[in-house]
Amino acid sequence: xxxxxxxxxxxxQQAILDVLKTLFTQxxxxxxxxxxTGQHAVFFTHHMRHLNWQPGDLEAEHEGMKKWFDEVxxxxxNAPLILDVDMPDWAxxxxxxxxxxxxxxxxxxxxxxxxxxxxxxxxxxxGLFAQYGPFNYNGKYTSQSNANFDVWxxxxxxxxxxxxxxxxxxxxxxxxxxxxxxxxMPANNRILVWKKKSL
Length: 199
Known about the structure:
Rossmann fold; seven-stranded mixed beta sheet; about 25% strand; two-stranded parallel ribbon; globular; alpha/beta; about 200 residues
């Protein structure tokens, strides 16, 4: 197969990197949920050499992302793991950081709840989860383009939708994480940063 390419990754990676550099400041292990093509893993590890990156996604995505990883000249990207939010246990070990981009609006509300449970289980105390994508606030879209995008999502899959920030906050709190930052991003996206509470 040819190396996959996602234009959205190329468009948002610099803006996301600028934020992650302020969050993932210490050397540590990162779990990426929904690595997709693998472009983010390659770009971020090139610019943040203090991080070891663990990509993860459905098995169907692995062959494509390996095309990207094969071109990398460092060993800080691990072989991708099979990650499915419906799996009962991810068995990924403890992580200093978790990152996920453009996954929450693709999965169902029930799956989003499972994802937060998995994240809470693997984050070390004081660890950060950076969650990038569009979110609603007070039950309202933040832009007309997000409203249009949500219609498209639901037409594609009735279980997909832009999630409410307030629901994400409740799920995070349920899994021993608190809101650390809520960062405005280009194109009506956000990075929600959740911090694992100490035991």
